[in-house]
Amino acid sequence: MSKYYLNDEAGLSKAGNKLYQLINDLYPICRSITGKGVRQTLDILSELIPLNKIEVPSGTKAFDWELPDEWNIRDAWIKNSKGEKILDFNVLNLHVLNYSTPVNETIQLEELKKHLFTLPEQPNLVPYRTSYHSRQWGFCMSHNQMMKLPEEEYSVYIDSTIKPGSLTYGEYFIEGELKDEVLITCHVCHPSLCNDNLSGNVIAAYLAQHLSGQQLKYSYRFLFIPGTIGSITWLSQNEDKLDKIKHGLVLNLLGDSSNFYYKRSRRENTEIDHIMEFILDQDKRENTILDYSPWGYDERQFCSPGINLPVGRLSRKPHSEFPEYHTSADNLDFVQPEYLAESIGLLQKAIFVIENNDIYINQNPKCEPQLGKRGLYKSVGGQRDQKDFQIAILWILNYSDGKYSLLDIAKKSGLNFQVIVTAADELLKAGLLKNKIAQDG
Ligand code: ZN
C-alpha cells in the first residue's frame, strides 16, 4: 500500500503561508501565452521543483492550430498634454491589452477612447483583456478614470514586440511504482491576477514538491502550460503518452474563500470523479459538483471527444461567477494563505485515495476468520478510533471479493478512508487479504 504522507494542520498552514509568499513574487510579472513572463514564472516555480522548461517554436502545427509569434513587452504608458503619466504598465500590467502591438503616437481623446477597455458595471476596476488573434493596440483602465479624462491630446506608448520565437511550458514528472500516470495541470498565461491563475500554479508546484521523494504507486505528471494553446500543443506532441493517464485534474481558482466546485470529466463516471465526489462529500464545507460542459479551462482540450481523458477540474467558485474575475480586484487581498492551505489539504486527501484505492480479495471468505488469534480483535476497547478500526475490518473482509475497491467500501460503510486503509493494511500483514492484481498475477 502506498504510504503517501499528508501534511497535518500545522504543515498545511505553513504551506499556505509559503505559497502566498510565492504568489507575491509572481504577481508583478506580465505573463501571456508566450514570452519572457512565462519563462520567469517557471523559474520562480522551480524554487519548489526542478521544472523542465520546453520551448516549441512559433509556427509549429498543433492539431488544427498553429503556434503564434512570441509577444514581449517592456514598457507602456499614456501621458496627458502636460506630459504627466496618467496610466503606467509598470504600476499594473493589466493596463495593457495583452498581446498589444507597439504604438508611439499623439492622439485626441476621441481616438484614444477607441483603444480603451473599461468595465462600466464595475467602474472602479481595471479589466483584463487579451487580443491574441487579431493585431491591435489597447489599454485597460477603470471606467471612472476614463469618464474623467479631459478633452486634450494624449501621448500613447507601448514598447512591445510580436515576432517568431516560441511557446514555453513547464513539465515535471515523478516516477512511481506503476507506469500509469496521474496528470495535474494548470495554466500559466495570466498577468497580475492572483486567483486566476497564480493560485493553481503554486498549489500544483507544492503538490509536486510534496509528492517528490515519497514512495508512490502512480507516476505523476505536472503541466504548467499557457491556457488552451498550451494544452493543445502538449496533447498534439504527446499522443503516445495518453493511454497511461488514469486520472487527471485541472487546477485553478483555489486561493479565495468560496466553496469548492468539482467539475466531472466528460466520461462522468471515472475513478477520479468518484474520488473527488467522495472527498467533497466527507468535507465539512458546502460544495458543488458540476457536470461536464465544453467550456471552462483546459478540461475542454483534455476532454475533447478525440482525447476524452479521465480529467476533472477542481476550483473554488468558477470563473465568471465571482465579481473579481478577470479584473484588478483579483489581487493579493483576494487570495489568502488559509484558503490556499485548505485547497492543498483537500487535494492531499484526494491523492491519498488515488494512491490507496485498490481492490483486494479475502483469503478466508468462508465465514469470518478468527481475528483474535491474529491480534486483530482488541477486546478492551472503547476508543472511537478503535471501534471504527474494528468495524472497518469486518466491512473490508466482507466486501473484498474482487469487485469492490476500498473507496466503494468506504462509501458503503460511511467510514473514513484512512481508517479503511489502516485496517486493510493490517489484514494484508495478517495474510487475510491479497491485492487483486497480485492474485490475478
Ligand atoms: Zn482566466
Summarize the structure.
The chain has 441 residues and is α/β, with parallel strands linked by helices. The chain is 32% helix and 23% strand.
Tell me how many strands there are. Answer: 19
**Which structural class matches the secondary elements?**
alpha/beta
Helical amount among residues, as a percent range? 25-40%
Using the coordinates shown, work out and report the CATH topology of the largest domain: Aminopeptidase
| Unreliable segments of 5+ consecutive residues | none
Tell me the name of the CATH homologous superfamily of the largest domain: Zn peptidases
> So what's the overall shape?
elongated
Spatial gap, N to C terminus: 17 Å
List keywords for this structure.
Glucose Oxidase, domain 1, alpha/beta, four-stranded antiparallel sheet, 19 strands, binds zinc ion, 13 helices, 441 residues, Arc Repressor Mutant, subunit A
Can you describe this structure?
By secondary structure, this protein is of the alpha/beta class. The chain has 3 domains: 9-55 and 167-356, Aminopeptidase (3-Layer(aba) Sandwich); 70-163, 3-Layer(bba) Sandwich (Glucose Oxidase, domain 1), CATH 3.50.30.90; 359-440, Arc Repressor Mutant, subunit A (Orthogonal Bundle), CATH 1.10.10.10. Helix content is 32%, strand content 23%. Strand 11 (181-187), helix 5 and strand 12 (219-225) form a beta-alpha-beta unit. The chain is elongated. It binds zinc ion (ZN). Zinc ion is lined by residues 190, 196, 319, 326. Zinc ion (ZN) is lined by residues 190, 196, 319, 326.
